[in-house]
Design brief:
By secondary structure, the chain is of the alpha/beta class. It is built from 19 helices and 15 strands. The strands form three sheets. It has a seven-stranded mixed sheet with strand order 4-10-9-8-7-5-6, sandwiched between helices. Strands 1-2-3-13 form a four-stranded mixed sheet. Helix 2 packs across helix 3 and helix 6 runs parallel beside helix 13. The protein is globular and about 70 Å long.
Amino acid sequence: MAVSLRALLDEHAGEELDLYARTINPQFVRLLRTIGFDRRWARGEGAYLYDADGTRYLDLLGGFGMYNVGRNNPRVRAALLEALELETPGKVQLGVSPLPGLLAEALLERAPASVGRVLFTSSGTEAVEAALKLGRAATGRSKVVSCEHGFHGLTLGSLSAAGDSAFSARFGPLLPGFSRVPFGDLDALEAALRGRDVAVFIVEPVQGHGPYPPPAGYLEGAQELCRRYGTLFCVDEVQTGFGRTGRTFALEHWGLEPDLLVVAKSLSGGYVPVGALLMSTAVYDAVFDSLEHALAHGSTFAPNDLAMAAGLATLDELETQGLPDKAARLGELLLERTRPLVERYEVVKDVRGLGLIWAIEFEEPAAGSRSWRMLERVQPGLFAQLVVVPLFSEHKILTQVAGHDSNVIKILPPLVLSEADVDWFVGALDETLARAQKLPRAMVRFALKAARANRPRSRLFSRA
């Protein structure tokens, strides 16, 4: 008898958290229970999540930006079902299936003319690894330059390029040949490239752990410096791609023409793991330069036919539903509605965004606050948690604190968001800030409890 997923789920209903803790990651479940995010999720649709009690939540986290076309998009699902019914050949390995070429063609039609070949991967960090590896081979150079506070993934090469020590500090030594420059500083970048020994400069057009948009002229200047010193210009659009910033690719805002373009996350509508490296024909020709090197780089499961089918359906959905334009329009509405919070609340330092990547940043009131300083001494970024938690528990809105020790709240909602959803969020945020700014004792006690629960437990090996 075939496995029945419905029967398995019914049999183990209510055990999700305990099962996950017992078999996968007990610390993550402990975190969820500490901050009150331990819901039993039943289903997702569009911009909403529903728990086991049928309560609807506004999903402004969007699976860290995977669900640009909405959770469980029916047209992407239909493409996946059709691919299964067609019984396509899949990964022949020594042979090809037609779907990868079709998705690659569709991607290249939408990308800048500077890229002409596609290499599929199973994730964003794998696509970054491919960019670094192929960039070194194509240039004959070994050095890589990235930006401080940047994020490119959690595998070792991507982590070596990342600019936040919170992710990398415990996993050294990282790979040699990597260095970082301040985001937005062209003088520092030129100093790093001037030796003509840098293979790749990798940069997010909008830094995700902020998010921070680039200063005027920075990305165009960085591209010109890369051209001048023979460094490959790599744009990481894992988070910003496929309509997120109001354009199909964020690089369109600045007219960029990279040598390497990295995409992933929402390419499959959130259904199937997928990523891709789009590269110039010059990079391809330098690496895959003979029959002997025809398989110089690849991945067993990439490209698989289900990911390719989902990708084709997702690109079509983005265009037919006008989702990049919708992201641009709703992003402007969101900024218009939330920028006044900077004047309304002393704790609000900044509101920023581009399309539907948006953030609000907090700071200690100018007049000073003993409670704020106490929270920051215990753990930096606790005030932001005092906003995220009630947004979830009281207003049924899922958001995130943007990075370790950060007093920034960030959202990456599905692009199918509505104006009513924007109203829901803005009203809830205003109400939550009005209360949180006063730092009531109950909220402070909760924050201190959460901080204490976050203290590391003893390690198996102590460091000498």
